[in-house]
Design goal:
With 364 residues, the chain is α+β, with helices and mostly antiparallel strands. Helix content is 24%, strand content 35%. It is built from 9 helices and 17 strands. The N and C termini lie far apart (48 Å).
């Protein structure tokens, strides 16, 4: 078996650049049940920005805002709105990861650097991927602190109830027309990922719009990145709408795993999170398509959760509406019962749902 030149242990964290990190942190605590675990800002000796670190099980989100109007963070927020800047990967050797990827053609974003505090040291490096997104390599085997040097452990006075979110299942990127294969090649050649699955416009289309998608995955399968591009359609696809409002390629959605999707989604709804709506007729014949499942269909229907099956098993999934005012980033909640796929059988229903929302926004 060939040696994996870029072994990855999992997603280390996802960093968002946002207009108001303090308020966004409260949103993710209250609505999604994340716990505030660390903070960096002027009070901790970090100048010019404030960052809040949120955690639930294996997921870490970092919300960062600039304190001045002329920083790279402010420029990012001005151009893209709130969005993902960093998909950080947890590695054993951040220096080697940087060398292996840059020698294969990755554009460097941050040379390897060691940062230290009283809790130990972390080595970090970063490369650029689609749009203005970075992959940061984080080596933390010699670190015992709350998150990274420069961050102080903090607790919120808000009593947070976790809702069963477990880990990042996959992160989806939207890229411009004609760019999908370029970025799939980047992941294959630069990062040693394998092409897992391909969807073309026959798989993912409605009467009005279509998209193409390819999924790449790293050696151990912990990291999965679907890459979407628009396909020809009568009207504007959701990918084009995203690109119009994000003003570049970027992260479209983050899929988060749960072991009990009915509980997770009912809690999210109770706390005010809005989801895409699929008509009740979806449930009329869904079991004919997917066969037997363990859950009560009525409970799934009540929460508007979608079902799909592949050779390995079945999955349950649902998508939030965009979590900021621009129709850009959203979240997927997914429960896998053996299935390794991405819900191909639901694409049409989902697309029609997204198109209804696009029409309301005047962007179809």
């Amino acid at each position: 078996m060939e040696q994996d030149f870029l072994p990855i242990n999992g997603t280390d964290h996802i960093e968002f650049y946002v207009g108001n990190a303090k308020q966004a942190a409260l949103y993710y605590q209250h609505c999604f049940g994340y716990e505030l675990i660390a903070y960096a800002g002027p009070e901790t000796g970090v100048k010019g920005k404030a960052s809040y670190v949120l955690k639930q099980d294996k997921i870490r989100l970092v919300l960062t805002s600039s304190l001045s109007p002329d920083s790279a963070i402010s420029e990012h927020v001005k151009k893209h709105g709130d969005g993902v800047k960093v998909l950080a990967l947890w590695v054993d050797d951040a220096t080697k990861s940087f060398k292996e990827t840059t020698v294969r053609g990755a554009e460097p974003a941050m040379e390897p650097q060691t940062i230290k505090d009283e809790h130990g040291e972390v080595v970090m490096s970063a490369i650029k991927t689609y749009g203005e997104t970075w992959h940061t390599f984080v080596e933390r085997k010699n670190y015992k602190g709350a998150f990274l040097p420069g961050y102080k452990a903090v607790k919120s006075s808000l009593k947070v109830e976790p809702i069963g979110l477990k880990y990042v299942d996959h992160c989806v990127g939207n890229v411009e027309l004609g760019q999908m294969n370029k970025w799939v090649n980047f992941y294959e050649e630069v990062m040693g990922f394998k092409l897992l699955i391909t969807f073309d416009d026959k798989d993912i289309s409605t009467e009005y719009s279509a998209l193409m998608s390819k999924v790449v995955s790293n050696g151990n399968g912990y990291i999965k990145f679907p890459i979407n591009e628009p396909a020809e359609g009568k009207k504007k696809s959701q990918i084009e709408e995203y690109l119009d409002f994000y003003h570049s390629a970027g992260v479209q959605h983050i899929a988060i795993a749960t072991d009990d999707i009915i509980h997770t989604v009912s809690e999210l709804r109770r706390r005010g999170v809005e989801f895409l709506y699929v008509p009740e007729t979806y449930y009329d014949d869904v079991l004919d398509r997917v066969g037997e499942i363990n859950e009560d269909l009525e409970a799934l229907k009540e929460q508007n959760i979608l079902i799909d099956r592949d050779e390995e098993g079945y999955l349950l999934q649902i998508f939030t509406k965009p979590v900021q005012d621009r129709p850009t980033l959203f979240f997927e909640i997914i429960e896998r019962n053996g299935a390794k796929s991405f819900g191909k059988g639901n694409f049409k229903a989902l697309f029609e749902s997204i198109e209804r929302e696009q029409e309301l926004r005047g962007n179809l």
